[in-house]
Recover the amino acids of this structure.
């Protein structure tokens, strides 16, 4: 079946612009997670949802970062006023309740 | 914040050799996981460990959940070229925290297998 999909796969943006990254979880998966992965590092937790409720946003670096999942399916991670330090691979994962997290291919964000 | 120390950072081995890598934490986790990441892909779960002292195998892979709940190791026996990749440990269900969903990852071990 279809896995977690993310779009766009690559995004290049200028400093100061807003970006929206999309995640489409595996059908039926109620939990959705966002991570950020710098080159040579493991994924770093940002936030996660059960259905449409944001359970934990402790990993969001600052208030320029926000995420939503209004209908409990697709999620959007938004970064406002992007900075060069925001450049990274942004990964989404989904799972059944307290189940194994399946990761998507990621969105490579480059801020110039 | 939470950090996992994973070692070694990289390994270069000959095909057929065994590999061992480990992960330690400053805090207790309720679950330990091991993932493999191939180039251009997201991490894929290899083994999950749910009880302190648990030893679990998945084919040529064996992992253990440390008794103190602060460490775990992964062994790969008789390595083959397709074992090449980055291996990550991750802790979940951090005792003292409230967020079950959050995974805390190690820095990764880059494995290279020479045929």
């Amino acid at each position: 079946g279809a896995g977690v999909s993310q779009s766009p796969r690559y995004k290049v943006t200028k400093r100061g612009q807003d970006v929206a990254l999309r995640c489409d979880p595996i059908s039926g998966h109620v939990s959705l997670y966002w991570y950020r992965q710098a080159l040579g590092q493991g994924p770093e937790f940002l936030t996660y949802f059960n259905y449409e409720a944001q359970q934990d946003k402790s990993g969001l670096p600052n208030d320029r970062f926000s995420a939503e999942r209004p209908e409990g399916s697709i999620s959007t991670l938004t970064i406002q006023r992007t900075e060069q330090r925001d450049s990274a691979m942004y990964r989404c994962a989904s799972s059944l309740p307290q189940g194994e997290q399946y990761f998507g291919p990621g969105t490579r964000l480059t801020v110039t | 914040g939470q950090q996992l120390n994973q070692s070694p950072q990289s390994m270069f081995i000959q095909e057929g050799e065994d590999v061992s890598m480990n992960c330690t934490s400053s805090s207790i986790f309720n679950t330990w996981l091991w993932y493999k990441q191939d180039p251009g892909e997201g991490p894929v779960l290899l083994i999950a460990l749910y009880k302190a002292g648990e030893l679990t195998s998945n084919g040529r892979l064996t992992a253990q959940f440390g008794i103190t709940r602060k460490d775990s190791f992964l062994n790969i026996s008789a390595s083959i070229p397709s074992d090449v990749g980055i291996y990550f440990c991750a802790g979940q269900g951090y005792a003292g925290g409230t967020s079950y969903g959050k995974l805390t990852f190690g820095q990764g071990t880059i494995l290279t297998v020479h045929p």
